[in-house]
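USER: Please consider what follows.
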Amino acid sequence: MFGTIYNITYQSSEDLQQEIEAELMKVDGEFSMFNPESTVARINRGDSAVERSAMFQEVFQLALTVNRETDGAFDITVAPLVNAWGFGFKHEQLPTPAQVDSLLQIRNQMDFSAIAKGYGCDVVARLLESKGIHHYMVEIGGEVVVSGRNSKGDNWHIGITKPNDDSLSVDGEMQTVLTITDKAMATSGNYRNFYYQGGRKYAHTIDPRTGYPVQHSLLSATVFAADCTTADAYATSFMVLGLEGAKAVLQRHPELMAYLIYTDEQGQLAVWSSPALKEYER
């Protein structure tokens, strides 16, 4: 689903796979960049007759809120720049500075890929709650919502991957494992989606304010929030803002927690985490 793998564990006597997949297909039908009949694809083509559903409006409004709270670091109109740098649904040559400047002015396409997986997790969690199910873990491509207890009666054990260059996702070495419940978690990082051209590494996080891939020491940002849509959006924002910028946002938003992995001045992996996260570490 959404071009990735999902895992959903829940305590129930019912098999809800069909209903779960139906809900996820609704999300896909709104936000997929690869589905030509999705709402966002039709809007990007200039279809003025497309109806914006309550689901679309909910995510759109949250995207605007996070854009405002991060001074433009999160921006769903970044799609033309993502495509120009070769990380979207079509791969082109690297853009010239003039092309980047031009694309910064146009911004006539939306890209919800930095928020849709998180929203998918929330939609499934809502479905489970509506069925009276309160013990579950929903995971889509690394974005997670957990509630209640696992099958052993404990809080859920959720790993944060060490940010090694791993474009095939075969390594999976854990940086840490947290024991949490009733939380949503999303991770963004440049260690899997990147390519080399002309001897230079291009990371997939594009700064929507400059039009260029980010170049800073932050390798991975994991954000914890009350819902996964919010966590997903802020995780992406933090990868744009870098370590100090992320800390500044967290100061303004005590409802958020984060686990940030970066390279220090000696080139070694280092970690900064919200003080409140200490109690969740195993």
